[in-house]
Amino acid sequence: xxxxxxxxxxxxxxxxxxxxxxxxxxxxxxxxxxxxxxxxxxxxxxxxxxxxxxxxxxxxxxxxxxxxxxxxxxxxxxxxxxxxxxxxxxxxxxxxxxxxxxxxxxxxxxxxxxxxxxxxxxxxxxxxxxxxxxxxxxxxxxxxxxxxxxxxxxxxxxxxxxxxxxxxxxxxxxxxxxxxxxxxxxxxxxxxxxxxxxxxxxxxxxxxxxxxxxxxxxxxxxxxxxxxxxxxxxxxxxxxxxxxxxxxxxxxxxxxxxxxxxxxxxxxxxxxxxxxxxxxxxxxxxxxxxxxxxxxxxxxxxxxxxxxxxxxxxxxxxxxxxxxxxxxxxxxxxxxxxxxxxxxxxxxxxxxxxxxxxxxxxxxxxxxxxxxxxxxxxxxxxxxxxxxxxxxxxxxxxxxxxxxxxxxxxxxxxxxxxxxxxxxxxxxxxxxxxxxxxxxxxxxxxxxxxxxxxxxxxxxxxxxxxxxxxxxxxxxxxxxxxxxxxxxxxxxxxxxxxxxxxxxxxxxxxxxxxxxxxxxxxxxxxxxxxxxxxxxxxxxxxxxxxxxxx
Amino acid sequence: xxxxxxxxxxxxxxxxxxxxxxxxxxxxxxxxxxxxxxxxxxxxxxxxxxxxxxxxxxxxxxxxxxxxxxxxxxxxxxxxxxxxxxxxxxxxxxxxxxxxxxxxxxxxxxxxxxxxxxxxxxxxxxxxxxxxxxxxxxxxxxxxxxxxxxxxxxxxxxxxxxxxxxxxxxxxx
Lengths: 550, 173
Description:
Chain A has helices spanning 6-27, 33-42, 65-78, 101-109, 142-153, 226-240, 251-258, 260-276, 284-293, 307-315, 317-326, 354-367, 390-399, 430-439, 443-449, 511-525, 532-539, 542-548; strands at 45-47, 52-56, 62-64, 82-85, 91-93, 127-128, 168-171, 185-191, 197-203, 215-222, 327-329, 335-340, 351-353, 371-374, 380-386, 414-415, 454-457, 471-478, 481-488, 500-501, 506-507. Chain A is α+β, with helices and mostly antiparallel strands and 550 residues long. With 173 residues, chain B is of the alpha/beta class. Chain B has one domain: TIM Barrel (Alpha-Beta Barrel). Chain B has six helices and eight strands; from the N terminus they run E-E-E-E-H-H-E-E-H-E-H-E-H-H. The radius of gyration of chain B is 17 Å and the shape is globular.
């Protein structure tokens, strides 16, 4: 894992002091809420429906045990005993008092964490594949370049007041788990025929009220030129992106209105100028220094299978189901990637209590080389667990209600905070996610349905990613009543697609039945081995529509 | 004309020798800042004028265009200009940060770059990093507050138009 050096410590420390001053000016009344707004936003502080909300950055979703314990401590001391993991691999606290936030940030800084650029119209915290460094067939660990991007983009003097927020995601794998095509910039690490590492760049993806899949702008940007290329994209956007209408201000709209070809020409012209200055090529020694932090941990030489694990699978059917659903093969023989579902049946997607966070931190320390990952699907990961230790880890997770065996299944829902917390929402998301998971609570039924991603947003801003849900649900408000619109066929992976709306919205009372109708229709029509998304892509929307509105 | 700002230049409060002119008034020999529209329309005459000339670059076009004026439009006139006043119409509009860097780093403009408009406390240091040397500040701001704000962050992570190289480079200098 990356460790701060004196630069990082000093800058983060100075930022806390700076924000303390800003909060004091706000509390004393010197700053109006309006003038304070851009300052608090740059520091991750939102004003929500009931209170201030603080969003803490978890760069590329990687945490140490010590850092996760700090989140537990913050949840206990400054909040109501829980935190909420978000679709951007961050954690949010919903109830901190404004005047205590500087203290909170000071405590965070002691574990090399901050809330910088987790909101505001700036380059946000960079996200990456949660299986980085653990999954087989990775070109390169995406956290290396993500850390370089984190540093380059932090307090960037030119790009902190952009037309709109800006999100960058990175994957080093053919299977995209970071939804890179739905980001302002998506980066896929590639290796060319000569064996050199470079980057395929996608620009202009996004969700919100106007969803777009990103366009591929460059096939292969050589390693040394990446920051120059990113700076070129940012400058073209900052200089020519629209600011007259905040709904039209994301780079996806600019790419759409300017056209892919012209956009590419603009970026390449700017890139040539920036690259010529050589100012942004990172010195090899620094690239090596950062890479070294992400080297493999000291894996033991182990057999590819574990007798202890196999015995336990035979003796404990629940454990066997959990292995089947939540365990992903590791690149190293004898190890596994463990997914910890934060979607217990009837629970709030992405929430974890202080005690749960501490339990996961302990497990990571003992069994996973001190590492935890946060996924954009709002779950946690222990990236490097020995097969021999799986049963012990499972038992411990079970004891803390963290062993729900539903990864990628219908109850593994993404949901935004919705009307329970958010002042933008039209409808509640969390209670609906809870109802759906209760309706499909039976795990055997979930396995029979197979991979099915439901994503719920409480308004058209699409924080719950409904556009890219296999089944997407959008909360809408009609004359003060909550309704829910269904879309089908979305996907956030390497074959990204935007879902299609089925038609008329459903009421709070009928939406769960409607979801069940969609599932039944799929089951009636699926052919051997087809997942929901495969069947949908084969048969299209009509059969679902017929049954939904029969 | 009465000025509704105080000028801080190169870190010190100073008398502003410049004044803004509208598009109609005949220009005197005093240092004058005009609009881009006037600059373009009267370039030939202005080139013969033997006095300091500045231009104001409007970020949001004041409703005339969707985007505002683009820094690239200044390229043909740089030899005539001693000053560019970059407009920041609201703190949210950071278009001027790119204009400043392009002027300094690509056009090699070495005259005065000043920030005008809604120049927010917490943007001053970033403006300076982008090559802005003069600030039109609200009369209520004290130089002490300004100076302190400039020094809140002692290091930078990335290179820009100033001489800070950025942590990624400095670690191995």
